[in-house]
Specification:
5 helices, Arc Repressor Mutant, subunit A, alpha+beta, three-stranded antiparallel sheet, globular
Length: about 90
Amino acid sequence: MTDSGLEDDHDGDVDAVLKKLSTSAHLVYLVLEHEADGGPISQSELAAETHLPPRTVRRVAEDLEDHDLIKSRHGQQDSREIHYTVTTFDS
């Protein structure tokens, strides 16, 4: 990803962006960040890890994605399932 807009809008300061979002968004981001080495995490796994309703996970994931903090993709085996990863920025 060459131009995500995050660096321009927020100088790459993820914490500043997270402070503007809900506590639920912060929690979802932290779980994704912590689990980043394990690969993408499904919406249902995030709901289980955070103890948030799936609808809340979906809503805050959309907020995080709108701010270029995470990426989503449909599952390879089940296209109804959405998987999320933390956005990485190459320097």
